[in-house]
Write a structure and sequence with these properties.
Blueprint (H helix, E strand, L loop, with lengths): L2 H17 L4 H17 L9 H20 L6 H14 L2 H13 L5 H17 L2 H18 L4 H12 L9 H10 L3 H7 L1 H21 L13 H7 L4 H15 L5 H18 L5 H35 L1 H11 L4 H16 L4 H18 L4 H16 L6 H10 L5 H24 L2 H8 L2
Helix pairs in contact: 1-2, 1-15, 2-3, 2-15, 3-15, 4-6, 4-14, 4-15, 5-6, 5-12, 6-7, 6-8, 6-11, 7-8, 7-20, 8-11, 8-21, 9-18, 9-19, 10-22, 11-21, 13-14, 15-18, 16-18, 17-18, 17-19, 18-19, 19-21
Amino acid sequence: MDPITLGFCGIGVLLLLILFRVPIAVALGVVGFAGLVIILGWPAGRDPNFVRGFTAAFNYLSFEPFSFVASFSLVAIPMFLMMGYVAFHFGFTHDGYTAARAWLSRLPGGLAIASVMGSAVFAAVSGSSMATAAAMGKLAVPEMLRYNYDKGLATGAITAAGTLGALIPPSILMIIYGLFTELSIGKLLIAGFLPGVLSALGYILLIIIRAKINPSLAPMPDHRVSWGERFSALKGVWSIIVLFILVMGGIYAGIMTPTEAAAIGAAGAWILAGLAKKLNIEGAKLSILETVTQTASIFAVVVGAKIFVGFIAMTGVASYLSDIALGLDYSPLVILLALSVMYIILGTFMDPLGIMLLTLPVVIPVIDSLGYDLIWFGVIMVKLLEIGMITPPVGLNVFVLKGAIGDTVRLETIFKGVTWFIFADIIVLAILILYPSISLILPNAL
């Protein structure tokens, strides 16, 4: 069989397995390994020998995935996750939300705006979109519903704002993207900061406009917060600010690598929890358990993807598609928009990490050959994956939030509420495509 045909068959089988709800890590690993057995056991011009192919594929399996997962840079993932879970279970996130609510509650849709700001704060110490949505859902949705906020607006704001965890540094997706593309992880993390802030501002502007047009969506609280209460609420924010400056300041100043900064951040979170006298056994157990569980899930997908990427690389599919893209009589912008549509469609039924690892070996050569900056494209890709996280019919963040709040709000109501925020995301995405300097100004200054 022709290697390129084999490669496309492998991609087709992979998508079919995913549609049948086979776990993405298993699907990537099985298809990748089977493809390696076939392509290594069927050399050009020779009779097939699948025993030889199995041996060669097993040798690849015993070395390549392990050497990749053993990368020092990947240590940043569990460290950033631990920092976020410690911040949540020991009350740092709650303090940030309380401060945002105290200062912003008198604005139109103030509690929803405070929820977006609280999500941005949690994103700045967690790096995980789903963790942000789950944590803020438990904190903010009951509060907004207590003040008779529209259920769609309340849940839509949290679901959309949860995606900030994928963009605002530290971002787990940015770390994975940097490892697979061999780009500077520090520059990628910094590149996501301004786009993340722009996304948060887009959500806030949408909330204000909707609350102005229809005040019944977000009734004003009866209680007026005094200036003393506002300044008192700021006392709990210092720990989050210290962690963010410690991690991102160290990376931006060139004092620490991202991995070192992640380790310092995780240790700093435990120390700050101790200084604030918030440490307890239950919170410590939950922080460690959730860190281990999430890390294992991510690494399983990474190992499966590494096997699949090895198979795709041997088939030559990536270079074949790159040649086709260059041969098309379309502008690079049209090709980029076509890829954007593809990512949004994939996002309706796949998880973001799976989409990224599935498409990187094929898409990156095309983007590189078109002359686009790969750091800028990393931001665009993550933004597209964010949109996929809240797009029906899957919308992982929607289901994560639903699991966090239980039967308080119907699933259809959450999807209806988050649709408004998808429009805001598309506008922000257009701005980021038209003005690449928004993403590149900070990494270029490193």
